[in-house]
């Protein structure tokens, strides 16, 4: 049913309820002329006269009374639905669908989700972590996270923090195998490879050199498709790994990992939050976006400064290299 027909029917019902076209127009936020035109259009569309009108009085015809009795239950139901929709927009409650990459992002999302659930216990988050790029509409996404800007049309993207790629090793590895002093020296070391879940290919190591961001091929001594598992393998001293700043930063700061070749640390991309137009979002979605931006934009917990990288590498090499 076209929206102008709904408005005409609502104007008809309000006029019957108040017994005055002028009062009905005021209640509907319309001019008396617009209300009169809406009724005339409805009568023309139905092919019947709904009101007896005089200069002072207005009353339902038999056809108008029958139409009102038939239409009234549906109008009440529609008004109830509109009220529920408005309340859902204002209340911080209900389902919240969140998507993000499985690789790299779980350590970022959990503290945010934990805080949000404590603040808004009536919201029911539905979180799906997947490295594939899904369909925003079909997946019914409220808020998404991605490494790189979402290609979906009509989606707003906000940068959160750069995603560093850092060559790392555990002290135990350095004590047994020594440390590479150049990218070329990596060929004689045990390196980990990351197999992309989306296509099954082993991702090359992305590093920074004088010409910019380049791909550096490695022969993996161990290959996985999960960054958490790769991080554990590096922490255990089995391999040298190219880890994201999200995974590496807390371990570098506690000395459990040593960054290597710090001049070649690459900022291949950044992490983004993406969402639809804020003007049409329920309060629960706006609240989550606001908290995510407050906690994650430029968060130093997931990024190591150049000074931190240089200092940690020098300290690690001095303490853990074989004599």
Structure explained in plain terms:
The protein is α+β, with helices and mostly antiparallel strands and 323 residues long. It has two domains: 3-90, Arc Repressor Mutant, subunit A; 93-323, D-Maltodextrin-Binding Protein, domain 2 (3-Layer(aba) Sandwich), CATH 3.40.190.290. Helix content is 42%, strand content 24%. It contains ten helices and 14 strands. α1 (3-18) crosses α2 (21-28) and α2 (21-28) crosses α3. The chain is rod-shaped and about 100 Å long.
Characterize the overall form: rod-shaped
Cα-based radius of gyration, to the nearest Å: 31 Å
Mean pLDDT across all amino acids: 85
Low-confidence stretches: none
Between the first and last Cα atoms, what is the distance in angstroms? Answer: 83 Å
Helices and strands, in N-to-C order?
A: HHHEEHEHEEEHEEEEEHEHEEHH
Count of strand segments: 14
Overall number of structural domains: 2
Please, what is the oligomeric state?
A: single chain
Q: What share of residues are in beta strands?
A: 15-25%
Largest β sheet strand count, sense and barrel closure: 7 strands, mixed
In CATH, what is the class of the largest domain?
Answer: Alpha Beta
CATH architecture of the largest domain: 3-Layer(aba) Sandwich
